[in-house]
Specification:
The complex is a heterodimer of chains A (267) and B (298). Chain A is built from 9 helices and 9 strands. Chain A is an alpha/beta fold and 267 residues long. Chain A has 2 domains: 172 residues, Rossmann fold; 68 residues, no CATH class. A 6-stranded mixed beta sheet of chain A has the order 5-6-7-3-8-9, with helices on both faces. Chain A has a 3-stranded antiparallel beta sheet with strand order 2-1-4, covered by helices on one side. Chain A is globular and about 50 Å long. Chain B has 2 domains: 64 residues; 201 residues, MetI-like (MetI-like fold), CATH 1.10.3720. Chain B is 79% helix and 0% strand. Chain B is built from 11 helices and no strands. In chain B, helix 3 crosses helix 11 and helix 4 packs across helix 10. The chains are: A alpha/beta (267), B mainly alpha (298). Bound molecules: adenosine-5'-triphosphate (ATP) and magnesium ion. Magnesium ion (MG) binds next to helix 1 of chain A.
Chain lengths: 267, 298
Amino acid sequence: MNRPAQSGSTVVRISDLSLEFSTDDGLVQALAGIDLDITPGEFISLIGPSGCGKTTLLRVIADLEAHTSGEILVNGVSPDEARQNRAYGYVFQAPALYPWRTVRRNVILPLEIMGVSRDEREARSTRYLELVNLTGFENKYPWQLSGGMQQRVSIARALCVEPELLLMDEPFGALDEITRDHLNQQLLELWRKTGKTVVFVTHSIPEAVFLSTRVIVMSPRPGQVVDVIPCDFSKDRTLDIRETPEFLEIAHRVREGLKAGHSYDDD
Amino acid sequence: MIDRLRYQGAFLPVLTVVASLIVIWYAGAVFLNSTQLIDRYQRQDINWNLGRLAADAWRMERPVLPSPHQVGIELKKTVLDKRVTSKRSLVYHAGITLSSSLLGFVLGTLLGVALAIGIVYVETLDRSLMPWIIASQTVPILALAPMIIVVLGSVGVTGLFPKSVISMYLCFFPVVVGMVKGLRSPEPMLIDQMHTYSASRMQIFFKLRLPSSIPFLFASLKVAIALSVVGAIVAELPTGGQGGLGARLLTGSYYGQITMIWAALIVASIVSALLVTAIGRAERVALRRLNGGQAVTV
Ligand SMILES: Nc1ncnc2c1ncn2[C@@H]1O[C@H](COP(=O)(O)OP(=O)(O)OP(=O)(O)O)[C@@H](O)[C@H]1O
Ligand SMILES: [Mg+2]
């Protein structure tokens, strides 16, 4: 829909991007010299120690934060324009549901704001609630759902806008391991079905390696990319691949990258 | 269900408190009226004991503190035995006070909400308005009320409205304070989320800020409704002749009818209590809806 004219092959193009926050105790360099091109249909994970700027990078792509220098294009246009074109869906770390709205009415909130017709809202919410396995819960309220279900509602809400790009900031961070495995599988399947481009922030190495086509390892102070690790497992992989030598090898490389980031921190 | 149990659980403690207050009241009546009585006993050389003192103290014609049953009799006379249209009926006067409180409450709430929206959305108002709003509440209402009545009267505005203005003056303050806080209460994450939808300020207001402010609004309304009754009564003092519970208070003190003052006070507090309870009920319903039907404790 909002396909860029000049770059059919990149959804996000970031070059030499830096960001400084000015705080009460001076400038904080949150991102420094980030280069990253993301092509359509990729699943990119950002991994790195706490405070290395993963959320900040995601927020720059979403135009929730303004970068200080460098360049960024989302769908070939500025992040601001991309946001106004509703080019992406953003899933926050917490479900961020409205307690006074039912599950369905939470999902259609962005559609109400965009002025989508009532029939279309109904159809899309039904479709995407089915996609996240929440059919039958349309008229429940958030407090009646478990944490994992709430997070799935928030994913359905982001999908409802039908963006080509999905930005997810530790969406499963607060969940237990079993629920998380389950949701990882569902997310993988969803990605396979819809072919969307995903940028996914996580702290978990297995999660990153399992889901991604590329893992971006970041280091803190200032936030930099220390390694870019391709991991091309077959599209219909299951959780079992996490025991295979190929998987463990990539996981090992991610861990090494994280360590390198830390030693950088210690000098 | 749980609510009902809670009310039933509260019934006995409330009854105990009321009973002890009445006992204290009777004791207080003996104590406060004793000086006058003992004086009289001595002048008239009457032998007296505590029993006689108490009995006399509880049925004095012009007591310093009337006993509860005297106030009860006065209430029966002026509430139950009079037609409600009679100028001697406390129900009639309560009606006058109630209507000006309610009008002032509605006006004050509207003013308060409007100011809060201005403060939240216009940065210059945020910095310039709040000090004035706070200053407005440091002026004693008792001094201001007659001036407002006189000024409005001189431009031909009389009757209900000037009294409501005084209620409004007291009411808008808690509403401004509560609503400013309420409209600013949504977490930054929810506001960011609205930005990702590229929502307009109007949409953010109606879909997020306004619903989020409802609990704060109700907390303010409970304070405001009680203040509106105070405002109406204060407003009725300088307009003595026109009726209302404030006018009854003034008449009572003018003729030294302490019992009449007490009866008017009790009716005033019943009116306030009913209004606060009504707001509390509305709050319970509203918050329940806001929580998606989940039970709420207020
Ligand atoms: N609004 C802000 N003002 C000032 N500094 C900020 C702000 N937001 C983030 N920072 C700083 O920028 C750095 C990067 O923060 P960011 O939230 O992007 O880290 P993160 O990688 O997402 O960490 P985590 O894994 O804990 O979520 C941190 O040092 C943080 O203190
Ligand atoms: Mg983060």
